[in-house]
TrEMBL record, chain A:
Keywords: Lipoprotein, Signal, Transport. It holds the Pfam family SBP_bac_1. The keyword Cytoplasm does not apply. This is ABC transporter substrate-binding protein. Gene3D superfamilies: Periplasmic binding protein-like II. Belongs to the bacterial solute-binding protein 1 family. Residues 1-38 form the signal peptide.
TrEMBL record, chain B:
It comes from Kocuria flava. The chain crosses the membrane at residues 41-62, 101-124, 136-159, 188-211, 293-315. Belongs to the binding-protein-dependent transport system permease family. Residues 101-314 form the ABC transmembrane type-1 domain. It comes from the Bacteria. This is ABC transporter permease. PROSITE patterns: ABC_TM1 (PS50928). GO terms for biological process: transmembrane transport. Pfam families: BPD_transp_1. InterPro entries: MetI-like, MetI-like_sf. GO terms for cellular component: plasma membrane. Its main location: membrane. It is a multi-pass membrane protein. Keywords: Cell membrane, Membrane, Transmembrane, Transmembrane helix, Transport.
């Protein structure tokens, strides 16, 4: 009897345990997969790139403004742009229905738009969000002459310099300077130039900026199919770009860390005693201020920082600074596309862009945001950024951008190895890779 | 199982103790009814798990084999086309593949050799340590192996990186090393750091395997050799090492297979730049980075075949005894 009763009790406990486990799993499935909370409010997932918390704050703000129509949850993407693209592409190709809103790096947009992974924005959203967007960011939001994403913020590189070094070198920074001038100044002053020589996306940004500034194009027909793409690097502009990169590498002007230097590493070098001139994104201004607060950088360094437009290749031709930023796209497999576009409309409002600029250091794509007094106070170089955005040139907008970029990264690093023949070799390599004849 | 006589087959003697009739199907030991039913129960219990494991391991392999026959890019699903062995031809004749294969083989040979020597020395120390300190010693030696590979890769990277590293200051007395020496800007110094971190991380694993082999060498053998006047080297080369062959070979195979698939260290430290890329990284970069599923699958299949080859060579040519039955000696 005792044994039987124990067995029955054990069986009873087992059944209760199983029922509880099934109940818990059921509850998890219902809450996790339903996409709606207890009140039936749809949840939109916004895949964001890492920032200082600004996108999460905007998500919260727009959730409150929606009056219960939707709720935005953020999901963090990897730190670097290439890894962000990898994750987004894999999820989109798999038909992930949680791809409601995505923060997208402009050069990767054609690759996602071409196979139809991105939902087309409704005309009323386009009308409401692009009225005062600057030309550069707006151009980067298109594919095949159609607007496929909405610009959220726009980035550009400036020439940052140490005023003391420029003065000692006798450079008038109120007038445009050339690469040759800053190279000569760094050499004479025995200082290092801040450029990004690592095998990464930053190298493509640099090469594209140089080629465009010299009047050339990396890809002459970016909308062509893979085997018809014509690479324009084997040109006078390509050779001028190679001359600058190669000289900086061979003459040690970028410092010993140049072959592994990314944006952050070049900023650290710029903040050191060896700093002179640096091409970099505006985040470095806020980052240097934060470093002063943390006590890792002296206040005198921060006060010594000046800014100007990107250096020219030819003294008589305006430079074409790199263009970056983030656009917002909606996945074609999203279950809440209408609400997602509504949320995008809320997120990209000029006042939100201005607030995001002030708090997170990422420049606005909206012209009106530059009129904001807080922006002007926090970023005294706002006018230079604005001017730079007007001049900025996007990287090649092709579905094969990743191949083009990776090939450039491999051929143009380390900078000391770049010679007159590098542009021609790169062009041949890219074409062979796109034909499927070569591995990357 | 195939050699066991089928009790239901016509003309087959099934009674325990009887000599099996001649013929291929009946060759092998004759089992009692009890043994047969136990074996059947064993299969019933383990079978489902075996089938699931087979499915889980075979599915990705077969899928990769299938995908490798196509020109297929994840972001161009409409352009998928059958190319049969075209991807293999592209990969096997490409200088990038050949360079990466060479780097992979180099890393495998150097790290396994150095780990074997260092691991054996550590095993000897652990084996000869005073009883009271043995536990502490083994724990201390095992610490690097307990650290997650990605974490140790970051630690090595930050130690050698030109902006954050301290190694250049510590070793500035060594000719060629100074504050301006950038370890990750060219192939050989970068490979040196990668291999050093790999050796540091996994030598404890090899030393532990070798220690177990060392402990199995009967002390009578070494004592007898000592009495016969054998020197330390003679005892080592004629008595201890031959008796440890199985343990040594198991350690070599395990580590060689691991080293051939090296990924984490390189991914963290150099991302494969400046000639430090291995086959695993190439497979990753092609499949995940370029989203070229066809080409990437071909690289993965080639990597898989290489791993199989290493295991085959070790087991068949060097007669490694993975089961520990002593036949490999």
């Amino acid at each position: 009897m005792t044994t039987t009763s124990h067995a029955q009790q054990a069986r009873g406990r087992g059944r209760r345990g199983t029922a509880a486990a099934l109940g818990a799993v059921g509850a998890l499935v219902l809450t996790g997969c339903g996409g709606a909370d207890a009140g039936g409010t749809p949840t939109l997932t916004w895949y964001i790139n890492p920032d200082a918390g600004g996108q999460a704050e905007l998500a919260q703000q727009c959730t409150e403004q929606s009056g219960g129509r939707y709720r935005i949850e953020t999901s963090l993407l990897p730190r670097d742009a290439a890894s962000q693209r990898e994750q987004l592409a894999r999820r989109l190709a798999a038909g992930d229905s949680s791809m409601d809103i995505m923060s997208l790096d402009p050069p990767f947009i054609p690759e996602l738009a071409e196979p139809g992974f991105l939902a087309a924005p409704p005309q009323e959203v386009v009308d409401a969000t692009t009225q005062d967007v600057l030309d550069g960011p707006l151009e980067g939001a298109r594919w095949n002459d159609e607007l496929v994403t909405i610009p959220f913020w726009a980035n550009t590189q400036l020439l940052w310099y140490r005023e003391s070094v420029a003065e000692a070198a006798g450079l008038d920074m109120d007038r445009p300077v050339t690469w040759q001038q800053i190279m000569d100044a760094a050499r004479r002053q025995d200082k290092y130039l801040g450029v990004q020589g690592t095998q990464g996306e930053s190298m493509t940004v640099w090469v594209n900026g140089l080629v465009k500034s010299a009047g050339g194009e990396i890809i002459e027909n970016p909308e062509a199919p893979a085997d018809e793409i014509s690479v324009g690097l084997d040109s006078e502009a390509g050779r001028q770009a190679a001359e600058i990169v190669g000289t900086i590498g061979r003459d040690g002007l970028g410092g010993p860390g140049l072959p592994t230097s990314d944006e952050n590493a070049s900023m650290i070098q710029f903040q050191s005693e060896q700093g002179s001139f640096m091409v970099n994104w505006p985040f470095i201004y806020a980052a240097t201020a934060a470093a002063v607060e943390d006590g890792t950088v002296e206040a005198s360094v921060y006060e010594d920082i000046g800014w100007a437009l990107w250096p020219r290749v030819d003294a008589d031709t305006p430079s074409a600074p790199p263009l970056g930023g983030i656009n917002l796209g909606v996945g074609a497999t999203s279950e809440h596309q209408d609400l997602a576009w509504e949320a995008v409309e809320c997120i990209v409002q000029p006042e939100n862009q201005a607030h995001y600029f002030v708090t997170n250091g990422n420049p606005a794509a909206s012209e009106a945001a530059y009129e904001d007094p807080e922006v002007r106070e926090a970023y005294p170089m706002y006018a230079t950024i604005r001017e730079s955005l007007d001049q900025a040139a996007p990287r090649p907008q092709t579905p094969f951008y990743n191949e083009v970029s990776t090939a450039i990264q491999q051929e143009w690093t380390p900078p000391a190895s770049v010679t007159e023949s590098t542009p021609r070799n790169t062009a041949e390599f890219i074409e062979a890779v796109l034909r499927g004849d070569r591995l990357l | 199982m195939s050699t066991v006589a089928n009790p239901n087959a016509p003309g087959t003697e099934t009674t325990a103790g009887q000599r099996p009739p001649s013929g291929r199907r009946s060759a092998g030991p004759v089992l009692s009814d009890r043994a047969r039913s136990e074996r059947k129960l064993g299969w019933m219990l383990a079978g489902p798990a075996f089938v699931i494991m087979l499915l889980v391991t075979m599915y990705p392999i077969l899928q990769a084999l299938y995908d490798s026959m196509f020109s297929f890019r994840l972001t161009a699903p409409d352009e998928k086309s059958f190319v049969f062995l075209g991807n293999y031809a592209t990969v096997l004749t490409d200088p990038v593949f050949l360079r990466d294969l060479w780097v992979t083989v180099l890393i495998t040979i150097i790290t396994v050799l150095v780990e074997l020597v260092l691991g054996f020395a550590l095993a000897l120390v652990m084996n000869n340590a005073i009883r009271n300190t043995r536990g502490l010693l083994r724990t201390a030696i095992l610490v690097p192996y307990g650290i997650i590979t990605v974490v140790s890769a970051f630690a090595w990277f930050y130690a050698f990186d030109i902006t954050t590293g301290y190694v250049n200051n510590w070793f500035s007395w060594v000719p060629g090393i100074g504050p301006d020496f950038n370890w990750f800007s060219s192939q050989w110094p970068a490979l040196f750091v990668i291999m050093a971190s790999e050796i540091w991380k996994t030598t404890p694993f090899i030393s532990l395997l070798l220690l177990s082999g060392l402990a199995q060498v009967p002390s009578e053998y070494t004592e007898a050799a000592k009495v016969d006047g054998a020197t330390w080297w003679q005892r080592m080369s004629r008595v201890i090492l031959p008796n440890m062959k199985a343990a040594i070979m198991v350690a070599v195979v395990f580590r060689a297979l691991d080293a051939f698939r090296i990924f984490d260290n390189i991914f963290i430290m150099t991302q494969g730049q400046y000639g430090t890329e291995t086959l695993s990284l190439l497979a990753y970069r092609t499949s995940i980075g370029r989203l070229e599923i066809g080409l990437g699958s071909a690289v993965s299949v080639i990597l898989f075949v290489c791993v199989l080859l290493i295991a085959f060579i070790a087991i068949k040519v060097f007669k490694v005894d993975l089961a520990g039955s002593g036949k490999g000696r």
